[in-house]
Amino acid sequence: MNIKKFFLIVILFALQSANAQMVSRETYLKEFEKRAAFVTSIYDTAQSVGYYQAAVRYARGKDLATADKMLIELLRDPRGDMFWMIPAIGTYLHGKDNMSPEARAAMRNAWKTYAPYRGDTENHWCMYHASLFLAAEQWPNLPGSEWYNGKSSEENLRDAKEYLIHWMNISTTIGQGEFDSPDYFPEYAMPMILLSQYAKDPEMRTRGTMMTDYIFADFAVEHLDGQYIGGFSRIYQPAVYKPLLSGASAFAYLYFGTGEPTNSGWTVLPALSNYRLPEIIYSIALDRSKTYIHQERKRVRNVIRFGTEKNPPVYKYSYITKDYGIGSLQGGILQPIQQHTWGVRYTYGRPYTTIFGLHPYWSGTEVGMFFPEEVKTLIADVVASKGTYNNPDKWTGGSPFERTFQHKNTLIVLYDIAPGTTTEHIDGFFPRNLEERIVEPSGWIACKAGDVYIGWYPLQEYEWKEESDVSINTLNDIGRPQLERVKETGNWRLRSHKPQNGYVIEVRSKDEIGSFAQFQAALNAHTPAATLQPGSVSVQYTTLGGDKMDFAFPEKRTLNGNAIDLSKTKLFEGPFINAEVGSEKMTMTYKNKKLVLDFKAVKIIE
Amino acid sequence: MIDQYETFGHHRNVARSLLILISLLAVVVIIPATLLSQESTVYVSVLSTKLFVVGAANPETGVFYKKTTDDTVWQHTGPKNIRDFGIAVHTPSRGQLICIAAGNGLHKTTDGGKTWKMTTGWQITEVSSVVIDKDDPHLIFCTTPYGVFKTLDGGATWVECNNGIKQLFTSSILMDHSNSSTLYCSTEDGVYRSEDRGNSWKRTGLTVGGVRVVVQHPKDSNTLFAGTDNNGIYVTHNGGKYWEKCAAGLDHSTFYAIVFDPNNPQILYAGGYVTGVYKSTDGGQSWKRINDGLTNLNIHSLAVDPTNSNRVYAGTLWSGVFRSLDGGASWHSAGLTGSQVWTITVQPF
Fold first, then answer.
1. Which of A49, A66, B1, B255 is disulfide-compatible with B272, CB 3.0–4.6 A?
2. Contact B54 A124 (CB under 8 A)
3. Is there a contact between A80 and B229 if contact means CB atoms under 8 Å apart?
């Protein structure tokens, strides 16, 4: 790192610290501009050929000959489907006024000759249709012979608009399908930000802005120190144990001023755009002066077989303080492959700022629920891009044999694993930088991460395993380089081989309970009672806060004698963001401010 | 005495006899030989290759075709890289009308592949199979994970037609060759039959899960075979009312492809997950594996050349196409190595 870059990062860190405090709109906007300049700073001089390198040059009116040369070269053989469409149309929209006629012609020709795959999931479809909509607006009145799919500009425009409105409707009535994904946040933010700035259709421009606000608000309310908090639909390794590596954290840096400075490519087009986050959203993201509970309802992405409901509900519960957040989904298969059912994340000890657990499950049935290819060979198909899917040591994924019950900062997780399942063990991730990881005589594992204390009570015997490195050059079963590192040296894995299993998690901060010793003493005074037989797995537990939780696998949850009915969960419910199921309306409140996104009326009401 | 004329006549008679003999030989040998060498076209849909990842710089996939007499060169037609599951070639138009069932939707050409149009919108996605009415090329059905769709106007408009189907995930659709109002589709809870062009469906007597394919006897429209995931092969001889499980000789349970020899319906081929190719020569009563030379036993598609029953094609998962010139007795790689060949069809032109 050169000295100039070092000082720039130091200054940006200082700015971030300032950002943690509430700032005026004017100050926020000035700081945003500085961060946007940092995000794009390496792209306008980089000589490597890429869309973002060209886009930044065009947008800055700098070194246009190089930008043209790059773009023409890139468009000679476009690849990447919707991951090409977004940077391609983004580069065009940000740069067309500075583009040479040859570069513009090359771009037009690419949309005629290159047929991108539309994809098979929500983020693919969102990027595909938003890009196609914007492209069709840019080149109107062209016949089908001028487009890769044989449809006219008007047909493409109509089809893309229909999909986008459908996606917005379903997301604002029963929830997003690929919800709260730290790694797929950019795939929604980028197309919506482009629509917000460049859609010529006023309705779609407004909708683009509203949906950008919507997904940022969804993130903001579960944001802590640059991290997404809670259960997630999709997350990759290593972001699952190094949270700031996710794409969402790059957006947190740019828009909230949190996390760590990054030149992530995901944020280049947004950094060039004129979209600015409403004050209320970054206020919600940054103000952690009060602890709060936030609940959400999302939906499972399209279940195409082996199920009775196309989009079953997902219930999400998060407890967020200034020092940590603990959040969970109800458990079960809610997303294929990369689900993160629960986790604790905190502000201490980057990069390993998390503790979580899972049953590392995989099956043809799971992926067959969501993908149309043959069940028998789907696992091999999936492993081609998600290298850890069938790895018994993986750190992501949901399981049909896992359920949770969370109340405030206490979480119970139970497992009743059927014999013959691909793995019959459960794992817990304990980062290497914990200050303490003490096994108490009571059975509690008491952990200290700065001013955050985490207690983990295993219901069955277990073993510790120290993680060791696996070469990043490892090839998977079909000879493709592993895209993800499976393990990292020094972190600790709690593994228990009992199929009827579970644990209780308690999290407290110094502010909440006092010293670590006091936390240990509190844990030792509260031990759960469990029944762990096949078909009969349950726990009775009185929390450190004195609440009585009874949980019987899979769905019987009782709090202080009252049955919990998850089906009553609203789309959003908490102190900052609220929305009723089916409403198409999100209401944000922060102190004396209010912002309503009314998708029925297509209006933003302040 | 035999005069010259007579001699000539005699010679003429000999010549006539020879001519008749030659003609007979021609009928018996030469014409079939001509038939045997008649050119046809084999079309395959390549779903993906080993290295396929959405958004990556993937190898070319989609529809490939070549003349059956050409051993090596596959030509590509249609969009590349859109996840082609199925293909339907309209025989009466001699391949001018082709439909592709793909991840992006239903794509169609009416000029033999010079130009293509995606006929469906965002609602119809991951199309798994397609069938065109041979007599009315505007009537097209396709299957998707979200059920069956049809168009009456060649793709200008599509309607969902799932009335009666409980599990919408449909893998394939078959139009009765003797009555285009009758259709069969394979679903996750059995085989369904429609007698009104898809307006309504009733489940047939086959109610097992994971039905992947249904094929019809070339002459007896009431005889059908169904291949399933995990449940083997079933046959019906009464249009689906009752089905029997085929057992003799079948040691596997997952079958993605079944095909009749169009020239001899007593002969069938079947293949699926790690099965290699099975052959029956008694109308499906008994089966025998014929895998000599087949280096990949995951078979997803099969086709018999109607101009030469000995020429059989097998599409594999990840090893491209294999071809046999001796009715399956031996197999040789026929290219597209590394591909998942989801569908094969051979057309007599």
1. B255
2. yes
3. no
Which residues lie below 8 Å from residue A566, measured CB to CB, with a gap of 6+? A313, A315, A330, A557
CA distances from A343 to A243, A325, A340, A402, A413 (A): 11, 8, 7, 14, 11
Question: Could you tell me if B153 and B26 lie in one domain?
Answer: no
What range does the domain containing B81 cover? 41-347
Domain shared by B134 and B28, yes or no = no
How confident is the model at residue B14, as a pLDDT? 47
* Same domain, yes or no: B11 and B109: no
| Residues B142, B3 share a domain | no
Sequence letter at residue A325: G
Q: How many domains does chain B have?
A: 2
- Residue whose tokens read 């009571």: A442
Q: Calculate mean pLDDT across residues A367-373.
A: 96
Q: Is residue B182 located within the same domain as residue B279?
A: yes
Model confidence at A48: pLDDT above 80: yes
Please check whether residue A7 touches B, CB under 8 A: no
- Could you tell me if B241 and B325 lie in one domain? yes
Residue of A nearest to B147 (CA): A304
Q: What whole-number percentage of chain A has pLDDT above 90?
A: 90
Say which CATH number the domain at B291 has: 2.130.10.10
Beta carbons of A120 and B300 less than 8 Å apart: no
Q: Is B167 in the same domain as B80?
A: yes
Structure confidence at residue A474 (pLDDT) = 53
Tell me the per-residue pLDDT of B281-292, one tens digit each, with 9 for 90 and over.
999 999 999 999
* Statement to judge: residues B31 and B147 lie in one domain: no
Residue B344: C-alpha distances to residues A358, B125, B229, B321, B323 (Å): 43, 21, 19, 9, 11
Mutate: best of A74, A84, A113, A118, partner B, most B CBs <10 A? A118
Q: What is the ipTM of this complex?
A: 0.91
Residues B172-205 pLDDT 10s: 999 999 999 999 999 999 999 999 999 999 999 9
